[in-house]
Structure to design on (1011 residues):
């Protein structure tokens, strides 16, 4: 009772009440917290998928025999290629690829049946539009697989002594959304926490109330803590929302310990909020803070492996990315959601997060009082 | 008619038709009627003043006349058209001035010209002309953000003039502007009026209202029939007595109980007493003050007397209530509550404050005066620990180190120049917040908050969003918020800026109440008659404290002699006398309906004054002293 009395009388309580009322009155902020993250998760989850399906295929079947038609059918049945055109001249084929009407073209020469009959390896030509290198690579991989498979069926034998059996762990369906969604979750938390926290801190400066606030007995840490506590609650709510979307829309599993995950997520929210606060103490107005946040957030995201795997980066940047807290958070999310590992495997990442959060918050608290100078 | 008006614009309305006609105008916001059925007409070339307390509906009226808001009922016509259609002919300056602070003076003007599609050649010509008129031609390349408050207002006026409006709507254009710049601003308005520009202006300064052709008093959304200042003064039906006494505070208390006295007001170093019958009143006052060696003189009532009396009749006098449960203070009177020793601050190569030393003791009110940009706000920020000084030291509430400690700040109160309240919170939420951060004990909070709401006259409106309050009202709430913890040291940076005259009186009574309870107060103001309430004054010019002392000492130390000149044709008299002084035209200043002339060698020029009008030797007022000091410094600087 006495404790409650003291709490209600404390400066911190007064500051927190004021911030909470201001946040609740700020409809725009609440909207910003809920709407874009949902959209981002859905858009990234669905649209960023690197899977290649329904590629348009032109076919020039000069052989036109039962076997050649079967080969065409083999291409058409697995959903990767759709036969979009049947052509009969080499010019028409190359024209179709050049204009982008089709992504790939299969040319079966007239000798196809003859070679087969003679026991020679028949040759087929596959033209692939290489402008989109990624798609081209995947298409070529699929195509060679289909052709090889077709060859085996024809020959009726198993060609190789070693037939590798690959088992894919953690993401058995190799669903790329499982890779992306945890990354986007980290990305969304970074963006919203840094933007929202910088906006609330810098607003006082923008309107001119900062001076008055600094003249009150409230210490810098009290002011900042009061500003961030209600935001923190909202951001945790946002993390839960993102998690729910991951589960419901993409079926991403959750194998780890939920509470441990929320603790680590809270730690990362502290990092995001720390970034925002620091930007706010540097910037002089709302527009400035949004622009600087852009400069900071983009490299953070690029280096984190949220979208492109870290292994695809040049070695130098792979080293640099070790300093990116988002990289560590995403490692935690992927590890806990997909693999179900806990602190025993993730402690280095957690350590980096804790250190970044401490550093950022310490620097901004220290800078806060000196902003007017 | 001069070149100001292209011929075609005059053909649309007859030359003698009123420029603005307002009939039965009503504007409602939900249930609240901001403007409640007003009628008036403004002649072409007239300077028409709207005066009234905060929240009277002046700003709403301006917004309707400017065509940015539609009335709920009634009509407004500007130049014979609905305001919306006349917008190209209207120049409108809003309360927070509409300049781009990161653009230069020239760029601001050019933008304004392009917005209203002013021809390039015409623009060049007008630019040169108006910049010269407002005396900003030397600063064309300076960023608007780096101009002083007065210069910004003149630039805003200049930008509004570029499209050559026939109508100027000015909503409190001189709020927060120093007395010298205010005079210059009004000189420009007078010049424009002579060129047949119609000016409608709202102002909380009643000496400015004296310079209008006609004035209308507005309150509660209603308008009293407009009249000339002279007739308004005469229509009051009361006589004014100027009373000097040895103890003004005591004299005021005595006179307030006197039946023959309608109103008493401390006005600088004298009391203004309104009585129905001058002879009987004079005798009654002299008798009542017999122990205080009174000197009673008769004078005409001022517009301020009219304003205050009318508002009192409306019952809108804000109450003066004692602060609930004040703490007893035992600080010795000789202790240093605010001290500065050789304080200096430089920003880059700019020396904002230089070698400033001052001392304020508990219970003392110290007034820091100076033109816009003289360094007052920088000084206050250094004194209260917001800004570290480049040189020198500060003592606060007896402490000289740890000026940033939370413990010390608890004993300070601070009201900054603007925006001290959170606009998105309600009045009550704001007050609760400040009670909380200053750790006012919970059992006292309710009382103190009620006290603020009552002195502001906002009972029943506690849950109004602060952003919707008119400026002057916000100032009152902000003042309340900054004293709820009964600080030992109180900093007030232009607390009464934009506050109406009646509320300003209450403000000073409250400040005096806190001082009597032992609070040391440092205050800045541009109302120099208010500065008389201060126990000690310091004048700042270009970052330096040039003179300190009691109001009496400062006035006594002014060089030269002041003469008051009264003339039937004041503008003519002013021009004639100014031409006399050539380079030092500041020596002739308009005070309401009379001129004040400063002569360093009276004998040589007195005859010329007497040729212009009725001349009499008077004592220096603080405002005369202020103008003299600022202008002499300016002359030396150039």
């Amino acid at each position: 009772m006495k404790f409650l009395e003291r709490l209600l009388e404390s400066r911190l309580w007064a500051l927190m009440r004021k911030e909470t009322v201001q946040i609740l009155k700020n409809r725009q902020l609440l909207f910003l917290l809920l709407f874009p993250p949902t959209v981002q998760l859905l858009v990234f989850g669905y649209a960023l998928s690197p899977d290649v399906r329904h590629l348009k295929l032109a076919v020039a079947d000069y052989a036109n025999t039962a076997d050649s038609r079967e080969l065409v059918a083999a291409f058409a049945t697995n959903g990767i290629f759709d036969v979009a055109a049947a052509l009969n001249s080499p010019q028409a084929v190359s024209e179709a690829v050049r204009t982008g009407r089709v992504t790939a073209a299969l040319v079966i020469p007239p000798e196809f049946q003859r070679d087969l009959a003679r026991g020679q390896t028949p040759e087929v030509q596959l033209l692939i539009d290489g402008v989109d290198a990624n798609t081209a690579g995947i298409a070529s991989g699929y195509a060679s697989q289909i052709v090889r498979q077709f060859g085996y069926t024809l020959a009726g034998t198993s060609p190789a002594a070693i037939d590798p059996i690959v088992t894919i762990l953690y993401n058995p369906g190799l669903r790329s959304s499982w890779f992306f969604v945890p990354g986007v979750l980290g990305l969304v938390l970074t963006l919203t926490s840094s933007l929202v926290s910088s906006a609330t801190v810098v607003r006082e400066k923008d309107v001119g109330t900062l001076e008055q606030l600094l003249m009150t007995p409230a210490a810098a840490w009290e002011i900042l803590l009061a500003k961030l506590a209600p935001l923190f609650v909202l951001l945790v709510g946002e993390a839960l929302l993102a998690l729910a979307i991951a589960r419901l829309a993409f079926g991403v599993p959750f194998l780890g310990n939920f509470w441990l995950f929320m603790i680590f997520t809270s730690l990362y929210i502290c990092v995001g909020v720390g970034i925002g606060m620091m930007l706010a103490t540097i910037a002089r107005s709302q527009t400035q803070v949004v622009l600087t946040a852009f400069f900071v957030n983009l490299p953070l995201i690029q280096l984190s492996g949220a979208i492109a795997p870290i292994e695809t980066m040049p070695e130098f940047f792979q080293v640099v990315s070790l300093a990116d807290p988002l990289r560590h958070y995403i490692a935690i999310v992927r590890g806990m959601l997909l693999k179900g590992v806990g602190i025993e495997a993730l402690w280095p990442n957690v350590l980096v997060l804790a250190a970044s959060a401490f550093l950022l918050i310490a620097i901004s608290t220290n800078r806060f009082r000196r902003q007017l100078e | 008619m001069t070149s100001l008006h292209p011929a075609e614009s005059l053909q649309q309305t007859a030359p003698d038709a009123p420029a603005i006609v307002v009939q039965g105008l009503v504007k409602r916001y939900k249930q609240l009627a901001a403007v409640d059925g007003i009628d008036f007409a403004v002649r072409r070339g007239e300077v028409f003043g709207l005066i009234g307390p905060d929240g009277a509906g002046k700003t709403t009226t301006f917004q309707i006349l400017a065509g940015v808001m539609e009335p709920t009922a009634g009509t407004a016509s500007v130049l014979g058209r609905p305001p919306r259609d006349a917008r190209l002919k209207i120049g409108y300056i809003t309360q927070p001035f509409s300049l781009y602070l990161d653009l230069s003076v020239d760029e601001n003007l050019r933008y304004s010209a392009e917005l209203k599609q002013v021809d390039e050649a015409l623009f060049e010509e007008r630019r040169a002309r108006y910049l010269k008129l407002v005396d900003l031609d030397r600063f064309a390349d300076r960023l608007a953000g780096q101009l002083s408050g007065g210069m910004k207002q003149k630039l805003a006026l200049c930008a509004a003039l570029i499209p050559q409006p026939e109508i100027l709507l000015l909503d409190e254009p001189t709020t927060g502007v120093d007395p010298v710049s205010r005079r210059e601003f009004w000189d420009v308005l007078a010049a424009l009026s002579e060129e047949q520009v119609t000016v409608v202006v709202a102002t909380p300064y009643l000496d400015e209202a004296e310079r209008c052709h006609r004035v209308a008093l507005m309150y509660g959304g209603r308008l009293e029939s407009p009249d000339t200042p002279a007739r308004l003064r005469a229509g009051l039906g009361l006589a004014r007595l100027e009373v000097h006494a040895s103890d003004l505070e005591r004299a005021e208390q005595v006179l307030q109980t006197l039946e023959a006295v309608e109103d008493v007001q401390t006005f600088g170093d004298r009391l203004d007493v309104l009585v129905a019958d001058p002879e009987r009143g004079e005798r009654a006052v002299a008798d009542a003050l017999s122990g205080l060696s009174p000197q009673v003189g008769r004078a005409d009532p001022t517009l301020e007397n009219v304003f205050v009396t009318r508002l009192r009749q409306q019952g809108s006098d804000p109450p003066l209530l004692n602060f609930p449960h004040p703490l007893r203070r035992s600080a010795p009177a000789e202790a240093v509550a605010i001290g500065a020793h050789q304080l200096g601050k430089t920003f880059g190569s700019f020396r904002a404050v230089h070698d400033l030393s001052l001392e304020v003791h508990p219970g003392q009110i110290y007034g820091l005066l100076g033109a816009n940009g003289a360094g007052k706000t920088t000084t206050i920020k250094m004194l209260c620990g917001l800004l570290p000084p480049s040189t020198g030291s500060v003592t606060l509430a007896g402490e000289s180190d740890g000026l940033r400690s939370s413990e010390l700040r608890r004993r300070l109160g601070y009201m900054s120049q603007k925006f001290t309240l959170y606009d998105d919170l309600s009045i009550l939420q704001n007050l609760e917040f400040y009670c909380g951060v200053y750790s006012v004990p919970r059992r006292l909070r309710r009382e103190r908050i009620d006290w603020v709401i009552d002195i502001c006259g906002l009972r029943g409106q506690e849950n109004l969003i602060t952003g919707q309050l008119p400026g002057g009202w916000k100032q009152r709430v902000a003042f309340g918020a900054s004293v709820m913890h009964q600080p030992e040291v109180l900093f007030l940076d232009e607390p009464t800026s934009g506050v109406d005259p009646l509320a300003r009186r209450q403000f000073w009574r409250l400040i005096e109440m806190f001082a009597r309870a032992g609070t040391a107060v440092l205050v800045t103001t541009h109302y120099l008659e208010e500065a008389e309430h201060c126990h000690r004054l310091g004048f700042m010019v270009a970052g330096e404290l040039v003179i300190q002392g009691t109001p009496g000492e400062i006035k006594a130390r002014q060089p030269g002699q002041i003469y008051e000149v009264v003339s039937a044709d004041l503008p003519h008299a002013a021009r004639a006398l100014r031409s006399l002084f050539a380079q030092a035209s500041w020596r002739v200043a308009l005070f309401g309906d009379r001129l004040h002339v400063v002569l360093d060698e009276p004998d040589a020029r007195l005859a010329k004054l007497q040729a212009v009008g009725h001349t009499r030797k008077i004592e220096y007022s603080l405002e005369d002293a202020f103008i003299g000091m600022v202008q002499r410094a300016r002359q030396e600087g150039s």
User: Anything to note?
Assistant: Residues 19-48+172-368 of chain A form one domain. Residues 158-164 of chain A have pLDDT under 50 and may be disordered. The CA atoms of residues 367 and 373 of chain A lie 10 Å apart. DSSP finds 15 helices and four strands in chain A.
